[in-house]
Amino acid sequence: MNAAITTTARMKNPAVVLPDAMKGIQNIYKAMYQGGVCPQVLELVHLRASQINGCSACVFAGVAGAKKHGESDERLHAVAAWREAPYFTDAERAALALAEAATRIADRSGKAVPDDVWNEAADHFTEEQLSAIILMISLTNFFNRINTTIEEPAGATW
User: Tell me: the pLDDT tens digits for 25-53?
Assistant: First the structure.
């Protein structure tokens, strides 16, 4: 049986408690969205990493963010099964594969991100774009870990 679902977090988000942390995070987000990647790709990457990590707050936010950038319900419902779904471009698939590899770094021996995954992403994105995607993956994992630790509920606002 699963633990009870919380409606309030254990504490405020640490990035809010320590204001200088939020300033730095906001600067990273600003730079990331100026990296030349379609916002929909960044939102798909965010959503997939959050699904893997089981962060309901970030999944909720990821769906909302993707819809804000024009993402369809059909595609959002298929993100968890993107390999089998016909809705994604080769570039989006490369970004999603990179998100999965970089999120599941402890799940494999050898390279955390295999060369074939990296090479496919590098075939579709410039170094600047890859930087934006990697930052999105990293920040998503960062917030997934914060939110699951403090038990941030889905739909919470700071």
Answer: 999 999 999 999 999 999 999 999 999 99
Say whether pTM exceeds 0.85. yes
Examine the pLDDT at 1 and tell me if it is beyond 60.
no
| Secondary structure of the chain in HEC code, one letter for each residue | CCCCCCCCCCCCCHHHHCHHHHHHHHHHHHHHHCCCCCHHHHHHHHHHHHHHHCCHHHHHHHHHHHHHCCCCHHHHHHHHHCCCCCCCCHHHHHHHHHHHHHHCHHHCCCCCCCHHHHHHHHHHCCHHHHHHHHHHHHHHHHHHHHHHHHCCCCCCCC
Quick one: residue 109, left, alpha or beta (phi over 0 = left, psi -120 to 50 = alpha)?
beta
